Amino acid sequence: MNMIVAYDIADPRRLSKIAKIMKDYGGRVQKSIFEVTAKGGVFDEMRCRVEETIAPEEDGVKYFPVCEKCAGTVEIVGQGIFIDPDQEYYIY
Predict the structure, then answer these.
(1) For residue range 38-81, what is the model confidence (pLDDT) as tens digits?
(2) β-pair partners for 5
(3) pTM
(4) How far is CA 59 from CA 10, 38, 62, in A?
(5) Going by C-beta distance under 8 Å and a sequence separation of 6 or more, which residues neighbour residue 47?
(6) For residue 68, what are the CA distances in angstroms to 10, 25, 92?
(7) Residue with the larger pLDDT of the pair 22 and 30
(8) DSSP secondary structure letters along 17-77
(9) What whole-number distance in Å separates Cα of residue 3 and Cα of residue 14?
(10) What distances in angstroms separate CA 16 from CA 26, 33, 80, 92, one per listed residue?
(11) Span 2-71 CATH architecture
(12) Phi, psi at residue 34, to the nearest 5°?
């Protein structure tokens, strides 16, 4: 199953934990948005890990399923490739 996962996490520590969890399942496309392919019980595993980490009264996570046909019609305007801010890079 393809999906877009978007989240808004209030606490920086939980935010970092959620980002690390999401990196186990997909690729970051914007700061708090990931593209994920989760087959079988993998989605349930991911959702469980997220639910164990967030504070539901303060945080929010949304899962948007994307069908194969729709995934093939994604349009990118502008940069199109997100550079992960957590990744190391050098400025010369």
Answers:
(1) 888 999 999 999 999 999 999 999 999 988 777 777 777 776 65
(2) 34, 63
(3) 0.78
(4) 6, 22, 10
(5) 63
(6) 32, 18, 41
(7) 22
(8) HHHHHHHTTEEEEETTEEEEE--TTHHHHHHHHHHHHS-TTT-EEEEEEE-HHHHTT----
(9) 22
(10) 15, 13, 23, 28
(11) 2-Layer Sandwich (3.30)
(12) -125, 145
CB atoms within 10 A of CB 35: 19
- AA identity, residue 62: K
Residue indicated by tokens 């539901």: 56
Q: For residue 15, what is the DSSP state?
A: H
Tell whether the model's pLDDT for residue 2 goes beyond 60. yes
pLDDT at 80: 61
CA-nearest of 1, 82, 17 to 61 is 17
pLDDT at 38: 84
For the chain, domain boundaries: 2-71
